[in-house]
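New to this. Please check both lines:
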Amino acid sequence: MKCGSLCQRVVGGLIFTMGSVLSLNASAQLTIGRQIIEPVRPIIDSVPVDVGSVRDVLETQVTQGVESRFDTLANIPAPQFSVPSPLSLTSPSGTLVLKEVKAPDGFLALEREWLVVGSEADKTHFSHPDITIESSRHLAAIDQWIYRLKVNTSLDELSQIRNSLPETLKTQVGRNHIYLTQGMGAAESAKIKNNNQDMLANITTTDKPGVCQIPVRIGMIDTSIAQNHKALEHLVIEQQPFLPQALPTTQVHGTSVASLLADNMRAGSHLYNASVFYTRNSISQGATLLSLIDGLNYLVAKQVDVINMSLAGPENSVLANVIQKISEQGVQIIAAVGNEGPASPPLFPAAYPSTIAVTAVDNNHAIYRWANQGNYVDFAASGVSVEVAHPDGTTSRETGTSMATPFVSARYACLFRASSNPAQALVTLRDQAIDAGAPGRDPVFGVGILH
């Protein structure tokens, strides 16, 4: 099996390619090939391998990784990927607030709702008898407008709605998909409460070895968080909601993720949270794509070093467009690979080329059994039965790729602050990763495990 054409990227004057380093050229231009199908070419493959003591990554290793992935999939008896059943959510007064449907692509979305990213002048293209503009606003982060459209059944297919738009907008339209948090699955949803004060003290100690000694600015897209928890008291926290007030919400997932970030952040560091998730049931939280994009826009305006996205869902051209624009501004997005198992298709935003994708391992470095696998996986970190803060003031143990992602986000933010160079931060991450699984990069652990 041969590797495809090389993916080239320039960051901070360095030219990166998969498998080899071409040159150092301060005048080179940023060119990232658009991902169409697997194998996904992740951002970490773009890091120059001649900086520091990072091992060489050769085309043969990439090829072996692809073959290893297919060998792994061949040993799985049946697909493990599944999408929850759609729900309809109403306000306390009984008014329908949100109706999920299963879209033709197999993922959840809002019924007959589409998003388009474009200019203010593009509004004229939506004067169609089967299209209603539900909302529109300017996104300062990418200097574009986003339109939420409601279409009649006759246009509720990607091909049909694209045909109603000019060529300039055909690739900038996508369903208002639903994305899910990536905490533990239903089979492992029993929460283990810890009231032991020694355990609480353990996750609130900020002067332990390994904690970043530089104040950082981290953004997160999640549920709301319990800001008054002792594990978060050393941080400057700001959060803003981006979902209809009538929808039920929870603080459990967001507080867990925030505490794992806080565990590696120096006192006085800033944590910005975009609260976007509504409660679907006792173990599932969902966020519309529009809420995600509004949250990203808010976090970029706060000039964060990194954005933690402990969530996953379908590929969407609107999300791809927004994330690419944000990446070009030097804001790194780090995302959970997903908890749908080794047979799952790639989930997003983790599988986008500019995103760092994180999987989960247990204390014995064994891969989390429900973690997604694929060539887009960049790093592994502890995410099985990890100690986290609970909104009621105690602690609990949680599992999932959601719980592994914050460690990598906090580590990257610290390295970025130390060097003021995204490329150097990524190189150092690769230096620090411990190889696991098949020698070299592989589709299970990525580059390796970060401690």
About this structure: The chain has eight helices and 22 strands. The longest strand covers residues 108-118. The chain has two domains: 88-176, 180-449.
